[in-house]
Design brief:
- This protein has a domain of 74 residues.
- It is mostly helical.
- The protein is built from three helices and no strands.
- It starts with 5 loop residues before the first helix and ends with a helix.
Amino acid sequence: MALPSISAVSVSMNQLAAQLRAETVAPTAITAAPHVVPFSQPTDFSGLIQQGLAIVSHAQQVANVDQRAFAAGSSNAPSLAQTMLSTEKASVAFQEMIGIRNELARGYETLITMPV
């Protein structure tokens, strides 16, 4: 079995790099969103939490739609870069929500253990 020469691999890598640079990442839209995310100013704490959960849920739905469209290879499927970007956005949003939950739990525990 013959191995490709270094120059052939280099040309192939350069072509892939040029292709990646040429791709632009366009914003995605959910084709069938189960609900619309309201982006108004919440007036109370529960409204703020509900809005945060809605934003995280929306990011996860966008990532799911992008992944399914990319896997199916449909004509309007997003690029691999766009699919990976929406997946990472959803992951970061979820991790931030977990961090907020942990801080709230820590604050609650501090309040409970305070002497009166």
